[in-house]
Structure formats: C-alpha cells, structure tokens
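re: ur question from the group chat, yeah i did fold both. here u go
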Amino acid sequence: MRKSVAVIAILALSVHAGVAAGETDVQQAIAAAKAAQQKADSLQGAWVTTDKLIEQAETASAEGKKEEALKLAGKAQREAELAYAQADHERKHWSPPPYLLPK
C-alpha cells in the first residue's frame, strides 16, 4: 500500500512538472517570435501577418491550448525570420531605378 501511494505521488508530481514545463515552453516560443519580429522590424521589413500570429499564440496560451500556441508561435517566428531575410536582401541588393536618381 505504501509503495502504491509513493508511486502515485511521484506520477502526480511528474505530471504537474510537465504542465509547468509546457507553459514555460509556450512563453519562450512567444518571446522568441517577438524577438524575431523586432529584428525584422529593425530593417522596416516586418510582415503584417506575424503580429496577428503572435496575438493568436498569446490568446491560445491564455486559453490553455498549449499545442496550438506553440504551433502559432513557431509559425510567427519563421515568418519573422523570413521577413528579416527578405528585408536584408532588399537592403543589400536594391537600388532605385535611374529615373528616380537625382540629375
């Protein structure tokens, strides 16, 4: 009997620890998405859809939908990284057309 009580207590604690880790993972994923979005915005290349994904991830997290929140935060981070890459490429390779250059 004592053995089964100890096993149940250990399982209960491990389940609780797993929930807390999930919440931490979600918050870290959202923070990473926000940081990537700020990086893209630093080149004025942030995409409009990324902020919406971050908001949806925060809402899903608040509603306890951790898996959905992680998925949305990951998508937001990927979008922000792509936006940064696009803005950086444009910054390095774009030049104004000749008719816009001063004479």
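okk and heres the other one u asked abt
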Amino acid sequence: MARTGRHGQTLVRTGTRTRGTPETNPALGAAIMEVVDTQLREGTPPETRRTLDRLVAAGYPEGEARQLIACAVTSEIFDVLTHKQPYDEARYIAALHRLPTLP
C-alpha cells in the first residue's frame, strides 16, 4: 500500500518497514546526530544552523529538519569513505543548500 508523506514523498509499506528504506543502526544514527548537534552548538559550519532555521521556517518540525541535515552529513561521510575523497566542506554546504532535496 502506498501513501504520500507530509512533503509529497511516496511511501510504500511492506509489513512493518517501508520498502526501499535500509535497516538502521541506532548507534550509528546517534553518532551522526551527534555530528549535527556539534555543528549546531559550535556554529561550524554556520550553514548548518542556517539550514535548520530555513527548514523550520518552511514548516518542517525541528526533529525532521535535523534528520534532513543528518542525511547531508551521511552523504559526505559516504563520499569520503566510499570514493576515498577528502572531506569537502563546499560539497557538504552545497548539500545543505539543496535540502529538503536529499543528496
């Protein structure tokens, strides 16, 4: 059964999981959220706070906005680890600017 999420995304449920959604690792998720929290607390880069404020102003609940930022963090980590590329702050900031479109 398909349904449309709050912001227009299509969600398909199979059993108790949404098809296409990978299993999650709670410890990894907490570590990524700690990165988001640190960026917001320390203001580095400042675009993280600006992105949170922009998404909340656009109607996203703060928790959902923080999860979107976590997606940008995860995307940057993926590029660094998978493609053996160095951290690229400009690439990360560009991903923040594109939110809520996911990287």
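fwiw on the second one: The two ends are 26 Å apart (CA to CA). Residues 62-82 form the longest helix (21 residues). idk if thats what u expected
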